[in-house]
Design goal:
The chain is α+β, with helices and mostly antiparallel strands. The protein has 6 helices and 7 strands. It has a single domain, classed as Aminopeptidase. It has a 7-stranded mixed beta sheet with strand order 1-2-3-4-5-7-6, with helices on both faces. The longest helix has 16 residues, at 122-137.
């Protein structure tokens, strides 16, 4: 992976190498439908997905089959200090997102929250897990990752395959993979 000074470009290059790409705004209804079909009817509303994509420029990712069908999604965002504090205090609501909790592309961040991961088949699932793991190990290695598993399958992936641990209230996390880089 080539490194650039543009954080978003580094994220996009990393996930592209794993078979994912950034969703377009027009695809967000299909992304939401995929998540409601595979995870729960209670997922972030379209307005929230649009805000996350606008804030991050990369936070809603999709796996696309050769025929154009979207069969996987990974939604994640870096959190501001306020977002991280809200998460740890139990006040962070991923179903009703607040823009101040999500870091913009060039803004400092103190954590990453995985909003959703959903796949209709093994190929999409493999790409999602690989992309999330590689982002943890490279582009966002200085940040802790957090998420909640809604399904038993999601819990198994996070705890058994990705080795995340449970904290309070069902919140799962993975510590930073490396210490802050020297300036």
């Amino acid at each position: 992976m080539t490194c650039s000074n543009d954080f978003s470009a580094n994220v996009v290059a990393c996930v592209r190498a794993c078979g994912l790409r950034v969703a377009t705004p027009d695809e967000l209804p299909d992304v939401r439908k995929l998540a409601t079909d595979l995870i729960s009817p209670q997922v972030m509303p379209l307005a929230g997905l649009r805000m996350v994509l606008r804030q991050t420029r990369w936070g809603i990712l999709v796996f696309e089959e050769a025929d154009g069908a979207l069969t996987g999604t990974l939604a994640m965002a870096r959190l501001t200090d306020k977002g991280h504090e809200a998460l740890l205090a139990g006040c962070f609501n991923p179903l009703a997102p607040l823009a101040r909790h999500y870091a913009r592309s060039g803004d400092p961040a103190s954590a990453v929250y995985v909003l959703a991961g959903a796949a209709r088949n093994r190929e999409a699932a493999r790409a999602i897990v690989t992309a999330c793991t590689r982002l943890q190990e490279t582009v966002m290695a200085e940040l802790p990752f957090f998420g909640r598993a809604v399904t038993a399958a999601g819990r198994r992936v996070l705890t058994e395959r990705m080795h995340w641990a449970e904290t309070t209230g069902g919140l799962l996390w993975s510590p930073p993979r490396r210490q802050e880089r020297a300036e």
